[in-house]
């Protein structure tokens, strides 16, 4: 069974393990580009340590770009840092209403001030390398998509970062195969919330952010709303959309994963048990059976296919292929974090982020 699972993964036509869906910046693209039809919308809650780098990256993209920062009840220097950048408009966010997720409430307030045909939804901790926005706009027009998004390159500064963050992207692609999400099929829809370029009119037609106000996995929910309304989306990787958020420790990565892992499973205990069984079969069985005299060739086949499925991700992020040998360890930790997310939910906490607790 593990051999069939891993060989099947390698052979399915939509190739979820592949990194072919990617977009890198053309540094020369933004020099003559007019961004007067683009407004950048940034929700920011206590992001004073990274917001300056994000805004500086936007200023380097080209001329005419409008930037709106929604200060979501910050208690640090977020608002003053944003106001120091010429051309940046700062909106003081109102208190969070009942039934809203914080980020979506901030985006809802900011979206009412957008007057341009295109809206770039950008997290406060995402830096765009020079030429990235022009490349993204050109790609959107060429592909004739109403929503395009890029998954940021997560910082890898420690052993835990290198062990777990590329695997995070790997699992996301297995869960939401980019080739299927980018197709006309409405069965799979995904986006990366850190960097989303969308037609402003489409946002308005689907009810902006009020239609997904309590979603904790807001990016994929937005993509699903857009596709179900008859529009097209595109999602890819990029090394030139850079996450500035430092993780560094197992605990911080655990916090990031556990806040939404059980949400991905629809808060279903049955699905959690099924995922546990699949992980045990896919990652545990090949190791356990390598020493079994009669089935070790199949166990080795499963192990090699498992490793091969992860190598493209390591190659894309310019990491040593030896990290693929630790994939079973990464899987064990992610399964434990998913159980931790479920236990939080059973105790009454749906999610916790930026000092806010969303009750189950």
UniProtKB/TrEMBL annotation:
Residue ranges constituting the Glycosyltransferase 2-like domain according to the UniProt record: 39-206
Claim: Kinase is one of the keywords in the record: no
Domain of life: Bacteria
EC number: 2.4.-.-
Keywords for this protein: Glycosyltransferase, Membrane, Transferase, Transmembrane, Transmembrane helix
GO MF term list: glycosyltransferase activity
Entry-linked SUPFAM superfamilies: Nucleotide-diphospho-sugar transferases
Enzyme class: transferase
Spans through the membrane: 265-283, 295-317, 323-346
The protein's name: Glycosyltransferase
Organism for this UniProt entry: Dyella halodurans
């Amino acid at each position: 069974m593990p051999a069939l699972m891993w060989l099947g993964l390698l052979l399915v036509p939509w190739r979820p393990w592949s990194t072919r869906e990617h977009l890198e910046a053309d540094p020369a693209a933004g020099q003559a580009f007019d961004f007067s039809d683009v407004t950048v919308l940034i929700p920011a809650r206590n992001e004073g340590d990274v917001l300056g780098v994000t805004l500086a990256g936007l200023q380097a993209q080209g001329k005419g770009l409008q930037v709106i920062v929604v200060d979501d009840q910050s208690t640090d220097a977020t608002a003053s840092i944003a106001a120091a950048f010429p051309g940046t408009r700062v909106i003081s966010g109102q208190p969070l209403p009942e039934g809203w997720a914080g980020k979506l409430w901030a985006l809802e307030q900011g979206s009412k001030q957008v007057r341009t045909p295109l809206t770039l939804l950008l997290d406060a901790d995402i830096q765009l390398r020079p030429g990235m926005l022009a490349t993204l706009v050109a790609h959107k027009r060429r592909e004739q998509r109403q929503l395009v998004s890029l998954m940021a390159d997560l910082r890898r500064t420690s052993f835990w970062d290198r062990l777990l963050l590329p695997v995070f992207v790997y699992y996301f692609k297995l869960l939401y195969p980019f080739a299927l999400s980018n197709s006309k099929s409405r069965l799979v829809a995904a986006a990366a919330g850190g960097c989303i370029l969308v037609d402003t009119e489409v946002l308005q037609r689907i009810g902006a952010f009020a239609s997904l106000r309590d979603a904790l996995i807001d990016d994929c929910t937005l993509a699903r709303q857009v596709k179900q309304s008859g529009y097209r989306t595109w999602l890819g990787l990029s090394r030139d959309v850079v996450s500035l958020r430092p993780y560094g420790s197992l605990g911080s990565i655990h916090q990031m994963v556990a806040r939404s892992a059980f949400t991905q499973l629809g808060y279903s205990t049955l699905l959690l048990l099924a995922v546990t069984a699949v992980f045990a079969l896919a990652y545990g069985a090949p190791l356990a059976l390598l020493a079994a005299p009669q089935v070790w060739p199949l166990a080795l086949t499963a192990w090699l296919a498992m490793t091969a499925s992860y190598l493209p991700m390591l190659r894309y992020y310019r990491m040593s292929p030896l990290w693929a040998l630790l994939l079973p360890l990464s899987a064990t930790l992610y399964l434990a974090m998913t159980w931790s997310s479920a236990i939080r939910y059973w105790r009454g906490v749906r999610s916790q982020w930026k000092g806010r607790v969303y009750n189950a």
